[in-house]
User: Fold this.
Amino acid sequence: MLQLSNKRIVLGVTGGIAAYKSAELIRLLTKLGAQVRVVMTSAACEFITPLTLQALSHNPVHLDLLDTRAEAAMGHIELARWADAVLVAPATADFIARLAGGHADDLLTTVCLATNAPICLAPAMNQGMWRDSATQQNCEELVERNIQLFGPDEGSQACGDIGPGRMLEPEQIVAKTAELFSQDILTGLKVLITAGGTREDIDPVRYICNHSSGKMGFALAEAAVAAGATVTLISGPVQLPTPERVTRLDVISARDMHQAVHDQLADVDIFIGCAAVSDYRPAEVAREKIKKDPENSSEIMEIKLIRNPDIIASVTALEQPPFVVGFAAETHNVLGYAADKMRRKRMDLVVANDISDWEIGFSSDCNEVTVIGEELEEPLPRASKTVVSRQLLQIIARRFRAKQTNTTE
Assistant:
């Protein structure tokens, strides 16, 4: 059920006794890496408290269609767009009837009408209500509209009856929800990416930096999420929006980035060092702005530089390092320098690109790279950084799986 990793589930809870099972359902979904937002009907609040479901989902519970705070931002539309799937569990006979009739008189029915995501219902009601012809007709109408029914199950019910109408157990509902999604190349993996340049202070006004825009690293983060990974992006100072579903940490200097990387490495499967990290920093940072001598137009400022920590080398030196991918931005002898860098730093792969070509260098929207690894030299033709990122991740995923297989044999 790794397919649920990083998926967005809107869980609708309606007013049936089985609502108590929704708490366990949320726990299981979040344990598998899904993000859950809960929408409760007013009747559901009589069976289980919103506070309980808020604590388990780690998100505010949505209750009212006409909540002015939420609707100022079109809350029901935002929820409908946010969802990868809408799951209603339990789904009472009343809710099924209202949904079949196209009602939009509360938040949950409105979300169901507005969303393009798949909708799944886990019916829960008395066996007589389930068998009633009106309920069966409503269910047939919903199935014709491509709304899936998970269950119901048969067995003893809260009212004492025995028969069909029991809500499926949470474990069964989770398994069926996972089947909605295909397993992508990075499904279930944790990926840590660095992006952008770093700034090294000279004084409170000036700093040393480079031309990195961060576009390649951000494109990789977006592509990795689309491939099913849980992604953390550590970025130097850039002017780029955070890709959806990516956890972003902002840093300034190379030492900040080094610390942030090691703080985030626990359980990381793949580390991609895409940042253009400053190799050097001033040995001393002036506390006050350095003033020029107005009487000496030929004055020379000399700054002593010292080496910054090598982030990639420090990761590969760990006792149990993740799969490590680095970048080599070069202006000449690109493949030779990249291959040497891979061997010296013991990387699994290195991505070589020629930054002397302004069309694929820093700040450009396109790239053209060669991926180098053990017995591998695979060029990727010029394309947008979005396309190149997807192609890169195909190679990274393939080599990662191969290494995992060799390690376990």
Remarks:
- The longest strand covers residues 376-384.
- Residues 385-408 form the longest helix (24 residues).
- DSSP finds 14 helices and 19 strands in the chain.
- The mean pLDDT is 91.
